[in-house]
Amino acid sequence: METLTGAHFLWMTIFKVVLFFTLLMLMVGGLVLFERKVAGFIQDRSGPNRVGPWGLLQTMADGIKFLLKEETYPDAALTVFYLLAPMLAMVPATILFAVIPFASPLPTGWGLVHMIVADVPVGFLYVLAIGSFGVYGVVMAGWSSGSKYAFLGGMRGSAQMISYEVGLALTLVPIVLLGGGVRIPDLISLQQGFSGQGPATLGVWLFLPLGVSFFLFFITGLAETKRIPFDLPEAESELIAGYHTEYSAMKFGMFFLGEYAHMLTTAALITVFFLGGWDIPFWHGDNIRVLADGTVIGDPTWWKTVLTFLSFTIKTSLVVTVFVWIRWTLPRFRYDQLMELGWKFVIVAATAYVFVVAGSVLVLDRLGIPFGLLYAAILTGVNVVLLGLLVLVIDRGRLARGAAYTVMRRLERASRRSGAGSATVGRS
Amino acid sequence: MPGEVKVMRRPEEKGSYVRAALKGMGVTFRHMVNPRNVTQQYPDEKWELSPRMRGTHRMATHEDGRAKCVACGLCPTVCPVNCIKLIPAEDESGERYAAVYEIDEFRCIFCGFCQEVCPVEAIHLGVHYENSEYSRERWVYDLERLCAQDQPFTALWDPADPASE
Description:
By secondary structure, chain A is mainly α.
């Protein structure tokens, strides 16, 4: 079946943009309620339950409140940037969704419709590029507000996001090594089995053969979405609300929406990169792929599109649930811990991992092992060993240390120099 | 003498952030799937109040609706925060009554002295706490309003144990 061309393509794309944007916003609304409910349950409360049955209309009430509250413009604010910042915070998070495939291709009377808004050839490089734009909203908001809290939040946000972006990009390099390309639909095909039709694929979701990447991408994804334990730009106990301290009404609402949209996007990216995208596990009927020359492998039907969409939604929701769950479990990092984790662990580990994967791929190719399940199984073994090393050896007291530990070390060194055996320090 | 800083040794060398985080997530997961919800759905469910709970005042009345108050002036005297305003008057038969009797419920500390001191058991505290108003003036209850209250009188002491032993 032909893919869409010409006017049909244009109309269908516009339709998809509207549809997916609406879906995203609806999901954001649901997510806000979901997060507050889960927060309630974890803390032995009920969560929102006054507006509508089970609190279902709470988000709508919040939205109305955002729209009706007074818009404030601080005297010290630089108005142009002050107004631009909320837009810059929201837009990147939402347009990231354009390159995420939601479901298997849908056959229609005019041709095969890909369930992706823009199947860009640069693939996830687009994700990295647009993801980096998120930092502009934060910095601009922090700088233009003319408030010291917002400024500190903005500075922290930019430092954090720039640091973790490096790690984020590096964790995706092993995917290129395995997939041989960056187009996102190809990455999903890579994780599906096609029993010899078309170029060889792994047939395994990448969180197994690239477990360390999955782990590191999860961490950096959390940091990029500025969620606990990485929410230092907001840090309500120190900075009031960080970079959006001075925003009210819908301008704050846009930061809020952007944050949740970013969280959904990150969850969707984790799903696409490591959890097989819209692939349904243990079933080969949904393995549909369109090769570069337009050949369609597999048998696309509308009900498969619906099922794979459900599969995608369920996977993304699970990842989001883990995000929420982490948020209500872990305390916020201290700033030096955050930087240490980013620069001394994530980037180093990701770089080392690129070499390990490259080496493994080289060895496996030399041994003549065909690209497929056995190949994936060996890589999985390597990753299990690496993850074991990470948790059992590397992580021992090194990833996030308390201030007492650092002070202790310094004192020990000082006392060793002065020859005293005790770990006490004199204060005159 | 120099001060000494005591540094606590923590078992950090053995600790692992990832494992500690997973352990914490285990705890929160148990609560997430099985929340021990302790929230009281307040306007729908309310506390059962003790009969000795001291709240909004209520003036006792005769059968014909007149307040029992004889304007003796003991309650404004005993009131530690001066929240009772009383202007006495006499009717044609020479009986004293309160021409003005106002209690500022905002100022009141609900000590219950007025109820204890009242010789005719007119002014009482009530078992009631839900009062909110749109203006401060509305918090000053006049005699009519005090008589119109319908909450049960506070039992200032337990009749079975008057000395609280």
